[in-house]
Fold this protein.
Amino acid sequence: MEQEAVLLRLLTWNMNTIWDVESVSRLVRVNRNSPPQDMVNVAGSDKAINPNVLMSMPIRNFGQGMEIVEVVFFHLIGQRVTEEEVEAERAARGLVKDIYAQLAVNKADPTFMNKYGNGVSWCDAAGKRCMIANVEDPEDHSRLVFVDYKLGELWFGTPTGGWWFAGVRLIKEGVRPHLA
């Protein structure tokens, strides 16, 4: 009964959408030759990984070796954040989804997900929505890397602060990125 009350509280928390967009960026070295399993192997984290979902993950520039990219995380707080809203915010910021780069940030700094619980999703070849979530458990503060099919198109907000999503900056040829 108590679990149902907590779930109900989480699902009904702030039924009106409230947007608070912040961002944080990180420079990270991405090994485009690493297999997907290596990318979700975050030190000190519990893992719940569906191997079929993991193998369906699209990989930008796979096989292109090492690359240093700027990954920008943006924060969307709200109940019922849709995939379209996430993609619109990513596009408005001039970012491209790069799952490997996002995972590389979590791998390079395992404590990152403690403050910035982040997620990313994609559709597999059959059109099923898949996801990776890198989060801290609010009860015992352990870290969890979760890879599985996503239920629906929504990212539900939480009382602990909502989700962080990410993308890499598009860099025009010959233009050096400004890093603040």
About this structure: The helical segments are 2-12, 36-39, 51-55, 83-92, 99-108, 112-115. Residues 2-12 form the longest helix (11 residues). Confidence is low (pLDDT under 50) at residues 1-20, 173-180.
